[in-house]
Design brief:
Chain B: InterPro entries: CDK, CDK7, Kinase-like_dom_sf, Prot_kinase_dom, Protein_kinase_ATP_BS, Ser/Thr_kinase_AS. Chain B: One of its GO terms (biological process) is positive regulation of transcription by RNA polymerase II. Chain B: Belongs to the protein kinase superfamily. CMGC Ser/Thr protein kinase family. CDC2/CDKX subfamily. The complex is a heterodimer of chains A (about 250) and B (about 400). Chain A is an all-alpha fold. Helices cover about 70% and strands about 0% of the residues of chain A. In chain A, helix 7 crosses helix 9, helix 10 packs across helix 13 and helix 11 crosses helix 13. The longest helix of chain A has 22 residues. Chain B folds into two domains: about 90 residues, 2-Layer Sandwich (Phosphorylase Kinase, domain 1), CATH 3.30.200; about 230 residues, Transferase(Phosphotransferase), domain 1, CATH 1.10.510. The longest helix of chain B has 20 residues. Chain B is of the alpha+beta class and about 400 residues long. The chains are: A mainly alpha (about 250), B alpha+beta (about 400). At the A-B interface, helix 7 and helix 9 of A face helix 3, strand 4, strand 10 and helix 14 of B.
Chain lengths: ~250, ~400
């Protein structure tokens, strides 16, 4: 699969951290900070996750949906593209692109059932309209690679399948960050294995050496992940709402 | 940037000057157009959004997704996409003709070098897909388009999909029946790139014979036709066969010598053909290996694409008002149009032979209704089955729900 990734559009579209952390001007004018920008993306990644559990789609679909959402906000502002509509629309589009379609009306049904907040409520036609806008924002590139498959292969190769549960969970959490936009998926997988092995006190030095992977990159990603665990917090609802109010059209 | 340019970049739809309708695809109308920015002739597929119920058509989305990753001289290029008036428009490079039109044109003589060139380009496109882990799953002459420069390109990726993870189950209801591999006909759900190679072999044979090779009238009959040509497979030849879901035992028939089926083909040609028609998909030659076969290095050399014979173009000028009368340019997947044109041609033939026709209504009218059944003339091979609607809906259900 690796040979495949290196010729993919995903590989060509990888960005630098500085390119990802750009708050677009309409958002900036409303006083949105980089931290708040990141926070909303994390918040929406969690939202996509919750919705996906309700409509029951594969892990892969969720990961693709979050990647789409993050890609959209490298190009579009949150003022113009309301995250609360972009998130379910990304899930809708990802479910089609990953060949396990979820009906739009089902999404709308669950959103209405679970969220009393008016600001989250949208109709089928809103999702379908946003689907088209997302396609455009993604420049129609829909294939996304994820760390999950390399993760299982690498763990197998290292004879460390007992760490699957822990490292898999770590990979899931990387979608709360922008890593998928910046690093090749197998590097993210390696970083998660690295963290897991450190946590479990396993000596993997020889195995990593044999892989000839760039350990600087692996360690950098690992540091970012650990930083995230140290610093991220779920803000209380009123704080979250205050951020959303900045970008809401009124 | 000039004002005009600004205007153009604002609305992508205005960039293209719409021309004649080329045909009607599975999910929308195809128009010829000119890109006002580059002067390039393109074909624009308008994707209808099915009554605003489920957004962008699933098949179209699959095609977009895969074609954005597949850039190769032997694969149709998706140049651009844009929404306009609630419809999604896909901009493809314009293709003059397709391989079916070449095979069917009785005025065209195909030299061994021509056949070699066509099948080489087919295999190159296919090898590229497989390298990128894409199964085409609808290989047939009608989906192999031919450009003005003679290049053959794989098109219609509406059934294609990624096959990354081994053991993933797929539906076996793919390909038009005549191009379906035996493992599919036996109902396998775990298959790989070998199914495309079998279909390519059928196309290879069709180029040699100038008619579809294995024209089964049902799935059972299709297997019968395959076994009649290559002999009933023995377990030693294909050990997994017995375990396929829809396996049924067929009466044993021995294989006639391959030479008797293709009397004009060279030894190298027959050797490659037999390797592509291998029963066991695990043993069947891959597209990549096939390209290394000595058939492609031995004389005659494959004809250069620009020198390949082409069916005559019929009034396909952008401004040509006679389009309706002369019949549109063949453009996959414009099945119906293509058929109408073919029937038109054959009918001229029949007049030459001065056959008695029953209605006598065919003499005057220039435009030929596409639904008229000409089978009474008897000179035509049976119509090609494409995926029928039952297959399609079955397929859609499977693809939507299986995973």
């Amino acid at each position: 699969m690796a040979a495949n990734f290196w010729t993919s559009s995903h590989w060509k579209q990888l960005l630098e951290q500085e390119e990802v952390d750009v708050v677009h001007s309409p958002d900036k004018e409303r006083g949105l900070t980089v931290e708040e920008f990141k926070y909303i993306k994390m918040h929406m990644a969690n939202y996509i996750w919750k919705l996906a559990q309700l409509v029951k789609v594969r892990q892969r679909v969720v990961a693709t949906a979050v990647a789409y959402m993050r890609r959209v906000y490298t190009r579009k502002s949150m003022t113009e593209y309301d995250p609360r509509l972009v998130a379910p629309s990304c899930l809708y589009l990802a479910s089609k692109a990953e060949e396990s379609t979820v009906q739009a009306r089902l999404l709308v049904f669950y959103i209405k059932k679970q969220y009393s907040d008016e600001k989250y409520r949208f109709e089928i036609k809103d999702i379908l309209e946003m689907e088209m806008k997302i396609l455009e924002a993604l420049d129609y590139y829909l294939v996304v690679y994820h760390p999950y498959r390399p993760l299982s292969q690498l763990l197998q190769d290292a004879g460390m399948t007992d760490m699957t549960h822990l490292s898999w969970g770590l990979v899931n959490d990387t979608y709360k960050m922008d890593l998928v936009l910046i690093y090749p998926p197998y590097m993210i997988a390696l970083a998660c294995i690295y963290i897991a092995s450190v946590l479990k006190d396993k000596d993997t030095t020889a195995w990593f050496e044999e892989l000839r992977a760039d350990m600087n990159v692996v360690k950098n990603i690992s540091m970012e992940i650990l930083d995230f665990y140290d610093n991220h917090k779920i803000l209380p609802e009123d704080r979250t709402n205050a951020i959303f109010n900045k970008i809401s059209k009124s | 940037m000039s004002e005009v340019d600004q205007l153009l970049s604002k609305r992508p739809a205005d960039r293209y000057i719409k021309g004649v309708q080329l045909g009607e695809g599975t999910y929308g109308v195809v128009n010829k157009a000119i890109d006002s920015k580059t002067g390039q002739v393109v074909a624009i597929k308008k994707i209808r959004l099915g009554a605003q119920k489920e957004g962008v058509n699933f098949t179209a989305l699959r095609e977009i997704k895969l074609l954005k990753e597949l850039k190769d001289p032997n694969i149709i290029e998706l140049i651009d996409a844009f929404p306009h008036k609630d419809n999604l428009h896909l901009v493809f490079e314009f293709m003059e003709s397709d391989l079916e039109a070449v095979i069917r044109d009785r005025n065209i003589v195909l030299s061994p070098g021509d056949v070699k060139s066509f099948i080489q380009m087919t295999l190159k496109g296919l090898a590229f897909c497989h390298k990128k882990w894409v199964l085409h799953r609808d290989m047939k002459p009608n989906n192999l388009l031919i450009g003005a420069d003679g290049q053959l390109k794989l098109a219609d990726f509406g059934l294609a999909r990624l096959f990354g993870s081994p053991g993933r189950k797929f539906t076996h209801q793919v390909f038009a029946r005549w191009y379906r591999a035996p493992e599919l006909l036996f109902g396998t759900k775990q298959y790989g790139s070998a199914v495309d190679v079998w279909a390519a072999a059928c196309i290879f044979a069709e180029l040699l014979l100038r008619r579809p090779f294995l024209q089964g009238s049902s799935d059972i009959d299709q297997l019968g036709k395959i076994f009649a040509a290559f002999g009933t497979p023995k377990t030693a030849q294909w050990p997994d066969m017995l375990y396929l879901p829809d396996y049924v035992e067929y009466q044993f028939v021995p294989a006639p010598p391959l030479r008797s089926l293709f009397p004009m083909a060279s030894d190298d040609c027959l050797d490659l053909l037999s390797k592509m028609f291998t029963y066991d998909p695990n043993v069947r030659i891959t597209a990549e290996q096939a390209l290394e076969h000595r058939y492609f290095s031995s004389v005659p050399a494959p004809t250069k694409p620009a020198q390949l014979p082409r069916p005559p173009l019929k009034g396909d000028k952008l401004s040509d008002g006679n389009q309706q009368k002369e019949g549109p340019t063949v453009m996959s997947p414009a099945r119906k149009r293509l058929k109408a044109q073919r029937d038109g041609l054959s009918m001229v033939d029949d007049h030459v032979h001065d056959r008695q026709t029953t209605g006598g209504n065919t003499g005057k009218s220039e435009t030929i209704p596409m639904s008229v059944d000409f089978s009474a003339f008897g000179s035509r091979p049976p119509p090609r089955p494409t995926l029928n609607s039952a297959d399609r809906s079955h397929l859609k259900r499977k693809l939507d729900l299986d995973f």
